[in-house]
Amino acid sequence: MESSNPANSAADTAMTERAIRQCELSVVVDVAYTETAALADFVLPASSQFEKWEWTFFDFEWPTNYFHLRRPLHDPLPGTLVEAEIYARLFDELGVLPDQQTLDRLTEVARDDRPSLLKHAGPVLQDNPAIAPVLLYRTLGRTLPTGAASAAILWPGCHTAAKKMTVPVQRALGTDLTGPALGEALFDRILASPSGVAFSKHEYDEIWTLVRNERIRLAVPELLDWLTGLDPDRDGVAPDYPLSLVNGQRRSHNANQILRPPAWRKSDPDGALRVRTEDLGAIGAADGDWVAVVTRTGRIVVRAEIDDSLRRGQVALPHGYGVSVPDGHGGRVTHGPRINLITDVTDRDPIAGTPHHKDVPVRLERVTAAECANAERDRDRVRQLITRGR
């Protein structure tokens, strides 16, 4: 598992945790010690985005499109590697890469006659085409500016763009080159542009050249069949779970789980459950109390916050919380609600299969004395971290 945290971000967290524990072997590649990493047999720490060559694609303003190959700002922390090097070393150990003599020969081809690299690498890739990205890293990557070996994978992409969008790429680069020479020029321009580069400039009448088929099919039979079968009476409120939870509300200071330090959040430090006065009062609780949110799959304890702007019967929790962080004393503490403990992987969109997060049937309950004590303890530990700016 690389750069993902299914033990916190996948629906029905408890089920995901059980599945990871049952694996014969689990390996995590990540920049943070996530909840998933804590369950893994091996953790391979990666360098952060500030310590390696990475890229961003944005179509800032169509018809001009930009690509930004970002250079590292700092040296990697000791004991970390860029992902490409991690996988290259794993491939070495697995014995799926060619011998060093072959790699050296292909490196010289990349240095002296780069356009013919794939032709020379053909016999190697014929046996195992899946090694192509690592092969480029181990050959072409060695010829690139210091530390930029990871960018080698962009080279075939540049040739594909130049082939499929020849005229727009020519406009962006201000050149009349064609064929492989245009792809090479685009790759060189990207490497030499630390602030990003326009890689294509289109005219509006060219937009249909980007559509693969002659028609865009708007009618999706599966969707239409599902829509005709909708029944409001059948999908009514479940008696055991009468409230509708927006599980993943956007707020002023929440983002994805990459932003783990609690001190980053300038408001809503607990990731409170927002609830109407009458819905909270129905269980005998008040604003600021700890309450339990219960679903078919789980139960979490959260702090309640009155919000009468919600519609009746609706409650809301934010996304991006529920991550564990070092507590400064050798342990870890969970910051905010782990919302996927109460989502249901089987309650999902029937076509895409995406679990529902914006209309989760729940009920509220009073917390036990032990639950309240644990919640107060963890909140105090988190607030100590915030005070120390961590």
From TrEMBL:
* Record keywords: Iron, Iron-sulfur, Metal-binding, Oxidoreductase
- Superkingdom per UniProt: Bacteria
Query: Which ranges carry the Molybdopterin dinucleotide-binding domain?
Result: 243-361
> What sequence ranges are listed for the domain Molybdopterin oxidoreductase?
4-53
Is the Transit peptide keyword given for this protein? no
Entry protein name: Molybdopterin dinucleotide binding protein
Q: What is the scientific name of the source organism?
A: Pseudonocardia adelaidensis
